[in-house]
Amino acid sequence: MASAEPAPGRTPALPEVFGHVDARQALAAAARDGRLPRSLLLRGPRGVGKQRLAHWTAQLLLCADPGPSGPCEACRECRLVRRIEHPGVHWTIPLEKPKSRGSAERNEEALEDARIRWIEEARTRPWRASHQEGMRALHLGTIRNLRRRILRGGSGAGPRVFIVSDAEELVVQEASQEAANALLKVLEEPPEDVWIILTSSQPGRLLDTIRSRCTALHLSPLPLDETARILREEVGVDDDEALRAARLSGGAPGVALGFVEGWSDADGMGPLEALRRDSFHLLRASLSDGDGARFRKAVDYPAFGGRGLLDLLAFLELWLRDLAAVMAGNPDRVRNTDALEWLERQGRSGRLHPAGPSRSLVALEDARTRAQGNVNPQLLVLGLLRQLNRTLVVPSGPALPDAD
Ligand SMILES: [Zn+2]
User: How far is residue 277's CA from residue 259's CA, in Å, rounded to a whole number?
Assistant: First the structure.
């Protein structure tokens, strides 16, 4: 933890805040009047900048010289928050379950070590692609650590801000009720000078009791051209790639990064681009005449860990929406523009039910709900693909163009 004066010239770990002007105005006005809610929920699609805005809100509370529209960005406090080094800002994120399965205390220590390593890593990367990284959750041990830090009290040196990212990950685990109760107690009555900021891209999955104790602020996607500009100017992505990624992300810069070639991961493909392509093969298998393609696709996945499928199924939804768009005569709404021709060929084939893509979204939603529980991904995928086939394809119609 940096206690020395930060050097003004050092690169901040967090980029500036882009967009969300209304939300920032509302937060700045509330902070100025001393009525910023003590338990806040920032909700909105993944990758729109919720973590950054949570830290910006922490800056608002800690800044030595805040202006009418926000923190000064120049004082020591602002610089420390931007570098994720401020001792008054505590960031809790979902983590993978620690390998050591010793006592509760040992698990809590392992989770705290993992949290610190995650933050050290975040400090070195101002821009990170937002995507599900393995089987992460807010484990009971993490929440106990958080609660202990909140209750321990500060140094009396000013506000303390506790940011809890992806708060919906609290509910999909064993002992979740105990973890939820531990969090509820502090949300209900935060100690003096404590602010708690939860973020969630799936607020519907939050426990009602948690949601009802927070003041919610919704963040909308950014305009696509603004998203593309951020990728170009902040990250150095070239024009075409920036526009393509912005469009696929629907206006979420953090998600857009996941589509950029060469941005992360060893094989050069962004982590979300790999998922997008994989989900395209799911769609193709669901349209295939024979069940063999569906079976072969299903066994591509592991036999356990259904939650690993959530991102994949989200992309499958995007493909089904694109198919629905071309079949309704709205090709301009297609997000997977690189496959527009293929989508239009399927739409024209006369082999698909006109309302099939829309109806299939119900089956998909059901699969996504089940993926959050303890299911076998192979069985889930096989069942879903068969269901989609029945919903999408007219039996014994003309052959589909290259659906296999
Ligand atoms: Zn400041």
Answer: 11
Q: Residue 81 Cα, ligand 1 centroid: separation in angstroms?
A: 9
- Centre of ligand 1 to C-alpha 61, Å, is 9
Confidence of residue 280 (pLDDT cuts 50, 70, 90): very high
CA distance 299 to 321: 25
CA of 143 to the centre of ligand 1 (A): 30
User: pLDDT tens digit string along 17-58?
Assistant: 999 999 999 999 999 999 999 999 999 999 999 999 999 999
Q: How far is the CA of 59 from the centre of ligand 1 (A)?
A: 7
60 alpha carbon to ligand 1 midpoint, in Å? 8
Q: Does domain 21-218 have CATH number 3.40.50.300?
A: yes
Residue 74 C-alpha to ligand 1 middle, in angstroms? 5
Which one, of 171, 175, 91, 185, lies nearest residue 137 by Cα? 171
* Cα(67) to centroid(ligand 1), Å: 9
Band (2; pLDDT cuts 50, 70, 90): very low
pTM value?
0.84
Angle at 262 between CA 258 and CA 265, to 5 degrees: 65
CA of 347 to the centre of ligand 1 (A): 55
Longest CA–CA separation in the chain, Å: 74
Which 3 state secondary structure label does DSSP give 104?
helix
Q: pLDDT tens, 71-82?
A: 999 999 999 999
Boundaries of every domain in the chain: 21-218, 228-260, 265-392
For residues 266-277, give the mean pLDDT: 77
